[in-house]
């Protein structure tokens, strides 16, 4: 594209034709007119400014099953044959696919017994044999066959009780002597984490079982539901996720640097996804919960609305706007000189094809690779000249597009503000309620009626906050709270004592995996499970470079999905559980960290290339082609990298969750100058990603100043078209700036006090309010209690008897009554 833009190179009849003679293959390099134009063109190329089609990306809980099986790094390629060798040492009779179900089960039971040995080397060999059995690729000829036997063998291993044994072994490995020996090592490599091959088996089992296949037999479906129920309190009456969180914090504290953190995070993500449910299940739970609370139905299904959206053209940067203005001036000048060519600016001018000097003068006006903004004429130009006739699409295509705004407008706290303003204007006093409309004009009555009946939205969080306030006001008469011990509640209770440390650990790893972070001496080493012990060739080092980038991208994907799933499930379960997690993310600098992540060439990150022939199971089923430096650099031919686009959308959703309805956190976005960073992210032509970027821009628009709004009207129009409207919300004007001081500490302290009251009331039963503790009124039990007396009291016991007992008269009649 850069060559085509600067040199006007086109292919015609197999010959390169440029500004020189037709058919001349020796093309002269055409330099830009000045240094400024060269830098501008270079910037456009580096920022991915050229016109790109909409990304055909479908957001889901995870990628396709075959893609999610690729948890291995490219460095682990030789281990596949080692696993096969360990399996075939004990299994030499027949091919696995030729045996019947009884023989399969017998061998699985024999392998499971082999895990229960004291010898570490023997146990590791059996674990590798089980891993090979879970992968099953030697007897298969295609990827579909591999997936069939993976599914069969995984459910077989689950049926014989392999997962419970793996969890116990993993807990033993976490607390083994290998941690202390790894701490003393100066450099950690892949060889130090070979004992934790258990994580590979557990990940394959969880990932395979959670995939719901309509062709599964009924016994597999029953096993899946049983496994899902048992995963929550599987080990020590705590969810497996709590043990994996403990591994993350132990790794970040430096006590276990050999943990394969990518696999731990992937297993943690899949466990949370399986036990709590994905985004579609969340939507169903939300609908059911609103029905239970007696709230009206949701106006629309947010998932289907987002999927039906179309991406908008990216907004222009300042240099592009200046360039457009200059080109517009030249076109107006051309229109005055050549009256016969008034409509030539919409397509290439045929009269300029033979004139090389005109090409030089015009720069890149006639380039076919201009951006969507440059291709669209200005309104003034559209009025001045008659455009060519636009072919109308067929009637069937036209009716398929949705009309109107995609979201139904909502009213939450706006009715009270609207009434207060109306009373102050027409009557001169305020009441503080939303019911009384006495003295107000008739149109105000109709407006209130419309707002309440058609657009009023009551969230689940409002009901939960009101109930919590009632429990705090009337602790005795309010009664006991009915606590549903669902999977989300059990997980929150498990991670509650150490939740701040878990959030800090996840953000530390996210910072180390971000492409914009620089290597520091005090940062954690997340590449322990990808670095080989030695490298010999340049090709291996190039492959390792691709592998390291892929390794970091998978870590970012897992962490972003974990945080988003936890935030959404905690918010649905109870708003203060969500606020507790969100506040600790904010305190751990999650907001600037996400902004730092997006402060990069986001287009190159989303279109990152991978070596697909090295992914599992392709690499073990086929003979690998000869890898060269050119093939490694070219990568696979895909429009975008699914996991990177998934990670970007997740991080934007997390940022929205943290800042929504929080004035102080919104001001953090303004202080950290997030607007230009977010605006660059709009270059990605994917509707869902653009929606969450526009949401973040909308909440801070009123604080960015009039000049910013004036020069970003295309972005303002996109916000109006795509983001939900809140009636009476002056997001574009900023009329309440003076009335809203920014006091971050006061807002967060007030929220923290509410969270602590909620946690102490619901979960800290031992430390209750002493005024509400029961009193023992039985005389015999009170006198029978053993009281420990201090030493000084025992030494002066005679004096105490004389002063408190003998010297005071006792009225026995009153005492007996």
TrEMBL record:
Region (Disordered): 310-331, 347-384
Keyword Phosphoprotein: yes
GO biological process, one term: cytoskeleton organization
Biased composition (Acidic residues): 356-368
Signal sequence segment: none
Keyword vocabulary terms for this entry: Cytoplasm, Phosphoprotein
Ranges where the Far11/STRP C-terminal domain occurs: 441-797
Compartmental location: Cytoplasm
Sequence ranges assigned to domain Far11/STRP N-terminal in this UniProt record: 52-341
Low complexity bias locations: 310-319
Cellular component aspect of the GO annotation: cytosol
Superkingdom classification of source: Eukaryota
Function: Plays a role in the regulation of cell morphology and cytoskeletal organization. Required in the cortical actin filament dynamics and cell shape. Part of the striatin-interacting phosphatase and kinase (STRIPAK) complexes. STRIPAK complexes have critical roles in protein (de)phosphorylation and are regulators of multiple signaling pathways including Hippo, MAPK, nuclear receptor and cytoskeleton remodeling. Different types of STRIPAK complexes are involved in a variety of biological processes such as cell growth, differentiation, apoptosis, metabolism and immune regulation.
Family, similarity comment: Belongs to the STRIP family.
PANTHER family membership: PROTEIN REQUIRED FOR HYPHAL ANASTOMOSIS HAM-2, STRIATIN-INTERACTING PROTEIN 1
Protein name, entry field: Striatin interacting protein 1
Species annotation: Astyanax mexicanus
